[in-house]
Design a protein that fits this description.
Largest sheet: 4 strands, antiparallel
Number of domains: 4
CATH topology of the largest domain: Chitinase A, domain 3
Helix content: 55-70%
Strand content: 5-15%
Number of helices: 12
Structural class: alpha+beta
Order of helices and strands: HEEHHHHHHHEHHEHEEHE
CATH class of the largest domain: Alpha Beta
Distance between the termini: 42 Å
Strand order of the largest sheet: 4-3-6-5
CATH architecture of the largest domain: Roll
């Protein structure tokens, strides 16, 4: 009897030891443990393609093979969950159910059909509910901490449009320009000397006030706003490839010799621009979101107690 009891105890101790190995604490993140079983579960989900997260920019092969990379991923997940709790953004069962109803309406299916579709993919409905809850909570914390602070300006959209489509299409612009005009004596020589001073760091507006021979001179040498085709061809050609803040070398026209400063340059919206504007804004927002998320999560890592066990 004692021998049998000893064998049972030995087996039980062996199983307990194995359980300890399986659920070994790999790390602590804000008092929350990351267990060996969490790592196993992560890799099971990766193999079944159940983890899809654009923000984390997952490299599936890296996470499957590299324990360090997988641990970084799990740490970042724990930090997100911790932020959800800290900001009181946990989603209720009712909110999850509402979201499921929206999914059903969008796909024009019943709850039973949704369950069947998930089953066919090898996904348990309870796991799907957990996935929806986690996704909603992540969206909430990201909206609160990151998305609400992202601003994509019209200038950002213009610049991206020109970078992407500028060479393939002809575009019209509106310029805000200033100039210094030389008309008397050796105008070309005087213009070149003044241009050299600007290149050395002298203030354009001050030099304009001191040197411009424009009879209609206004503060800073302002010429006002012009659309493509509304200004002298020599000036338009000189500023065509410049950006705001850029200054031309001396430009000769029928009026004299000019040094031109581009104060503003705005794309005049075309039908093609308007058609692509929403898409470009979405691209820029997505790019900014990923960049800001990376910055945010790295900052949170610095602020969070993290202990990785060897």
């Amino acid at each position: 009897m004692n021998k049998v009891l000893f064998i049972i105890l030995a087996v039980a101790c062996s199983l307990y030891a194995r359980a300890e190995v399986v659920d070994k604490v790999l790390a602590i993140v804000s008092e929350e443990p990351i267990l060996q079983s969490d790592l196993v579960k992560l890799r099971q989900q990766l193999r079944s393609d159940k983890i899809q997260d654009e923000l984390f920019t997952i490299n599936k092969n890296e996470l499957l093979k590299d324990d360090k990379k997988a641990m970084e991923f799990l740490i970042e997940e724990r930090i997100l969950k911790s932020e959800i709790k800290r900001q009181n953004l946990e989603v209720t069962k009712e909110a999850v159910d509402d979201e499921i109803n929206k999914i059903q309406r969008r796909n024009k299916i019943s709850r039973a059909q949704l369950r069947e579709a998930l089953k066919a993919q090898g996904t348990n409905f309870a796991d799907y509910l957990d996935y929806i809850k986690e996704r909603m909570e992540r969206q909430a914390v990201i909206q609160q901490s990151i998305t609400s602070k992202i601003r994509i300006s019209e200038e950002d959209i213009n610049a991206h449009y020109l970078e992407k489509y500028g060479k393939s299409k002809k575009h019209a612009f509106q310029y805000t320009l200033s100039h210094i005009l030389f008309r008397k004596g050796d105008a070309a020589k005087n213009a070149q000397e003044t241009y050299n001073k600007i290149k050395e760091g002298k203030n354009f507006e001050e030099l304009a006030a001191q040197n411009s021979e424009d009879p209609n001179f206004t503060s800073g040498g302002s010429l006002g706003k012009f659309k493509s085709g509304e200004v002298m061809k020599e000036i338009e050609n000189a500023v065509a490839n410049l950006e705001p803040g850029d200054i031309t070398p001396p430009v000769k026209t029928q009026m004299g010799v000019h040094i031109i400063k581009v104060n503003e340059k705005k794309l005049i919206p075309s039908p093609d621009y308007e058609a692509k504007k929403s898409q470009i804004q979405a691209e820029l927002t997505n790019k900014a979101l990923k960049e800001q998320f990376r910055f945010w999560i790295e900052q949170k890592k610095k602020e969070t107690f993290i202990k990785i066990n060897s």
